[in-house]
Amino acid sequence: MTTDIRRDADQLMRYYGELMRRLTQNGVRDVAELLTLYEQLQRAVSALTAQEISWACDQVQGLIRQLVGMDTNIQALRRLKTAFSELPGIADTNARPPA
Known about the structure:
By secondary structure, the chain is mainly α. The chain has helices at residues 2-25, 31-46, 50-85. The protein contains three helices and no strands.
């Protein structure tokens, strides 16, 4: 029985060492700091309502749709400019007319 307790304690200590190694690899000093960060995150998230998050998502999606539309228009203008520049007899639009 004593050996079982010792073995279990050794396994727990090895796990704790591994846990600490993983935490420090990710910028957290120890379990206490991890719990503090968790509590801070929990408070920060609870300060936001589902309606606020939904509104922000709708705004972002609307902006993305507008930007995609603008990109489509710019691509169409680029194709149009390329097509016109390939036509024979089309003068350079940047050139000045003869005086």
